[in-house]
Fold this protein.
Amino acid sequence: LFSLFLLLLTLQPFSVFSQSYSNVSLGESLSAGGNTSSWLSPSGEFAFGFHSINNRDDAFLLAIWYDKIPEKTIVWYANGDKPAPKGSKLQLTINGGLELNNPQGEEIWRAQSILGVVTYAAMLDTGNFVLVDSNSVHIWESFKNPSDTILPTQILELGSMLSSRQPTNYSKGRVQLRLLTDGNLVMNTVALPSNYAYAAYYVSNTFGSGYQVVFNESTATIHIQSQNGSILLDLTVGSIPSTKTHYHRATIDFNGVFTQYARPKSSSSSNGYESWSIGWSIPDDVCSFNSQDVGEGICGYNSICRIVQNRPVCGCPNQYTLVDPNNTSSGCKPDFILQGCNGNGTGTPEILYRMDELLDTAWPNSADYQRRAPYTEADCKNSCLYDCQCAIATFRDGNCWKKSLQVRNGRQRSDVIVKAFLKVSADKNTPRNPHPAPSVPVDHNIPGSNPNGEEKDKGLFSVVAAVLLGSSIFFNLIFLAAIFMGVLVYYKKLKEKVQKPSSFETNLHSFTYKDLEDATDGFKEELGRGAFGVVYKGVLGLDSKLVAVKKLDKVVQEGDKEFKTELSVIGQTHHKNLVKLVGFCEEGQHRLLVYEFMSNGTLAGFLFGSSRPDWNQRTQIAFGIARGLMYLHEECSVQIIHCDIKPQNILLDDCYTARISDFGLAKLLMTDKSRTNTAIRGTKGYIAPEWFRHLPITVKVDVYSFGVMLLEIICCRKSVELEMGGDERAILTDWAYYCYQEGRLDALVENDIEAMNNMGRLERLFKVAIWCIQEEPSLRPTMRKVVQMLEGITEVSEPPHPYLFSC
Ligand SMILES: *[C@@H]1O[C@H](CO)[C@@H](O)[C@H](O)[C@H]1NC(C)=O
Ligand SMILES: *[C@@H]1O[C@H](CO)[C@@H](O)[C@H](O)[C@H]1NC(C)=O
Ligand SMILES: *[C@@H]1O[C@H](CO)[C@@H](O)[C@H](O)[C@H]1NC(C)=O
Ligand SMILES: *[C@@H]1O[C@H](CO)[C@@H](O)[C@H](O)[C@H]1NC(C)=O
C-alpha cells in the first residue's frame, strides 16, 4: 500500500518554470524540461505547458493545471498515451498550428481541426487555452477538446466526450462520459485498446431534448440543458461552495464515477496538501449495473465490486490478487494454481481445493456455462469442486449455476440472495474470511485522504516468484508455458475483436447490381415489403438456388457505414432460427441484401389464413422464435436488438421452422453504443411501452414484441382487430389478460380442441406471454428465461397484471 501511495504521490508534478503571462505569438515555443516550460493565465491560476509524469525527467505531459495549489492538479492533457521525452518542443508555428514534436522533430501531438488562421494563443483565467484568429474568434479551445475534466464556464456540446485516464498514468482509461448526438448523457466502459464501447451503465434519459452539459460558474453547478436554455437535469446535488472561495472541477474518474470536486483557493494547510473534496458523483452505484454485454466492467474480471459512499471499491476474493498490483481496476487472478482441465493430476480435487463461501456476493449475468437443478447446496459445491472447468458456483432455491473464469459483474451487497462458493486452494491456511479483501480505492488527486485501507494482497511478481521457487522444474516449465499460452490467446482474442468488422467481406458474396437484376428477372416477382424496402424472388447461379432479394430504399438516410455494419454483424450470425444472409450488393446508389428463400412464407400468412394451423406446429414455431431471439440477445459477438418482431418478419422454411428476418431496424450495440434511441422503431401493436416513455431501449423491447406475438400464435388472431371496434376483444393483450383472470382460456382460444387437450402447455405458454408483455421492462424475463419456461425447464410463476397503474 505504501508503495502505491508513493507512486501516486509522484504523479504530482514537481515545480516547473513558468513564463509570466503575455499573449503567445506565432513562433513562440515551450520546451520539455527546459527553462520555459509553461505559459500562465493572467491571474496565474492556470498554466499550460509541460508537466513531468511521475517525477520522471524523461516523460512529459502537455497539460493545463491549477498552478497556485501545491497539488498542481491537472485539468487537461494532450499526449497521455505518448509521453514527450525531455527536450520535446511545443510550438505555435508561423503557419498557425500548435505542434508538439520530440527532439528529433517527429510529431507527438498537434491541435486538430483548427477552424481558421491563428494570430495568437492565450491561456485564459477560466482554464481554457485558446487559439485566436484576427477577428478575436476562438478557433480552437482546450475546452472544446476535453480530456477527463470540465471546469466552471465549460460546456459540453452534443457529440463531446470525456475519457478517463489510467489510475497510475495519463494513458487512456476504461471509462467514457459522452453527450451523444441524440441528447443523452451516457457513461460506459470501453474495450481497450480498441474503442469498442460497451453498453452504457449510466443514461441521463434526456434524449431528444438534451443539448448541452453546462458547468455554470455563478452557481458552481452542472446541469443538462435543452436548446432553449431550460434545465432538464441537475447533476449537482447538495450544497456546493462558491467559486469565489473554491476551485471546482468535475472529472470522470478511472473508477467510473463522474464527480464534482471542490477545494479552497487558499493553499495553506498543515500537511502542505489541501485536498479536493467530493461534492457529488454519478451514478450512485456503478457496481450494480446488470450488464448483459461482455466486458470487464469497472473493477475488471473476477473482481468483486462494492459501494462505499457512492463510490466503487474493487476487491478480490480470497486467494485472488490484482492482475496489476498498482491498479485496483485491473481485475483479479487466483494466486494459487487453478489447474483447469489440462492439469496433469498432481492431486485429486478434494486434496487440492476446497469450496469457500463468499457472503453477500453474486455474479449476475456472468457467463454461466452450466446450470443444474434440482440440487442441494452440498451437491452444488461438490459439482464445482470436481469439475475442472468450474471456479465459482452460485446456489439458490435448488438451482446451481457453475462459472469458469473470467467472471463478470461481481458485486457484494447486503441484499444478494444467492449463495456463492469459490474454489480455493486447500493447503493455504488463509483464514476463512468470507469477505473479499478490498483493495484500496485511491483518488490520485487527493493525497492524504486515502481511507486507511486494509492490507493489500501480494503483488504479481511476488506471487510468480513464490510459485517458481516453491515447485519443481517440470512444474515451472508448465507454469511458464501456461502464462505464455495465456498471453498468446489473449492477444489473438484482442486481434480478432479489433478486426471483426472487416471480416464480412470474406463471409458473404458480393453481387453486382446486374447479377441481381438478372436473378430477379428485372425485379419482377414481389414477395413482400419490409421496413426498408421491397423483397423480390430470384434465382441464383448454376444450381438455380432460390433467393429473396431485398432492395433497400432508405439507404441515404441510414448511411453507408450503418449498412456495412449491419451487414457485417448479420453476416456473422448463424442460427437455425434466423434467415441466412447469402450476400449483398453495394454499387452506386444501390444497396441490396440477398437472403435464402423461404418457401412457406411469413408467419402472418400462416396464422391469419383461412384455416387454423396445427397447435403442435404453432408451439414449435414459438419455441424456435424464442431460441432465435435468445441467440441474438445473448450469444452473438455483438448484441443485436431486433426491434421489429412481428409475424410479418418471421418466415417459415420448407419444414415450417421459424426464421427471424428483416433486421433493417435492428439496433446493434456496436453502432448504437448507448442503447438509447433517436426515433421510435418498430410496428404499432408490437412496440414496447418504453419507446414512448423515454426509457433506455434494451433487449426487453424484443421480449415485449415476442409476448404479443406469442398471444397471436396461441389465439391465431391479430393483436389488434380494428373491425371489432369497441368490442372488449379488439385489443388482444387486454382481452387475453381478462380471460386469464376470469379463468376462461377456452374463450381465448375459441375452443381450439387441440390446444384445450393440452391445457398444461396452453397455460404455460399463456403465462409466459403475460410475463413478456409487462409494461415494466425489468419485470419481463430475458429470452433465455423465456426459452426455459416455454420448454418447461423452469416453473412459470403467476404473472402480475401487465400494466403499472392498475389496481
Ligand atoms: C492579447 O491580444 C489581444 C488582441 O491583440 C489584446 O486585445 C489583448 O490585450 C492582449 N493581451 C495581453 C495580455 O497582451
Ligand atoms: C536556462 O537558464 C540558465 C540559467 O538561468 C541559463 O544559463 C541557460 O542559458 C538557459 N538556457 C536556455 C536554453 O535559455
Ligand atoms: C499506463 O498504465 C497502463 C496500465 O498500468 C499501461 O498499460 C500503459 O502502458 C501505461 N502508459 C504509459 C504511457 O506508460
Ligand atoms: C448560471 O446560473 C445563473 C443563475 O441561475 C444564470 O443567471 C446564468 O444564466 C447561468 N449561466 C449559464 C451560462 O447558463
User: Anything to note?
Assistant: The longest strand covers residues 172-179.
